[in-house]
């Protein structure tokens, strides 16, 4: 299983093994990483799983599309590397993938 890195706004670093095919959001939920709220359970309907993809990885995953792009307009402090972690599916190639989590999901 790929190891995914979650870095909270306060600097706390979590590493979690996430199964291929699961989302980065589900990996956070399964490993009790509280900075990803995931209120809609991964339906791409609330933007409470907002994250910033590390610059080294941004070009290695498919870009945001459709409803995810629309939902990103609702996040606090959006950046060019903002994504919804419910829309990032883990692949074997993502070992070491890193996301930074915003101070607030609201």
From TrEMBL:
Record SUPFAM superfamilies: 2Fe-2S ferredoxin-like
Family matches, as CDD domains: fer2 (cd00207)
Keywords, sorted A to Z: 2Fe-2S, Iron, Iron-sulfur, Metal-binding
Top-level taxon of origin: Bacteria
InterPro entries: 2Fe-2S_ferredoxin-like_sf, 2Fe-2S_ferredoxin-type, Adrenodoxin-like, Adrenodoxin_Fe-S_BS, Beta-grasp_dom_sf
Gene Ontology biological process: P450-containing electron transport chain
GO annotation, cellular component aspect: cytosol
GO terms assigned for molecular function: 2 iron, 2 sulfur cluster binding; electron transfer activity; metal ion binding
PANTHER family cross-referenced by the UniProt entry: FERREDOXIN-2, MITOCHONDRIAL, FERREDOXIN/ADRENODOXIN
Protein name: 2Fe-2S iron-sulfur cluster binding domain-containing protein
Naturally occurring in which organism (per UniProt): Pseudomaricurvus hydrocarbonicus
Lineage, highest ranks first: Bacteria, Pseudomonadati, Pseudomonadota, Gammaproteobacteria, Cellvibrionales
């Amino acid at each position: 299983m790929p190891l995914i890195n979650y870095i909270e706004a306060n600097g706390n670093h979590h590493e979690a093994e996430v199964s291929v095919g699961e989302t980065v959001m589900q990996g956070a939920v399964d490993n009790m990483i509280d900075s990803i709220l995931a209120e809609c359970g991964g339906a791409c309907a609330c933007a409470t799983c907002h994250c910033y993809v590390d610059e080294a990885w941004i070009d290695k995953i498919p870009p945001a599309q459709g409803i995810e792009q629309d939902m990103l307009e609702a996040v606090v402090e959006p950046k060019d590397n903002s994504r919804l972690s419910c829309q990032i599916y883990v692949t074997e190639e993502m070992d070491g993938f890193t996301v930074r989590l915003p101070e607030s999901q609201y």
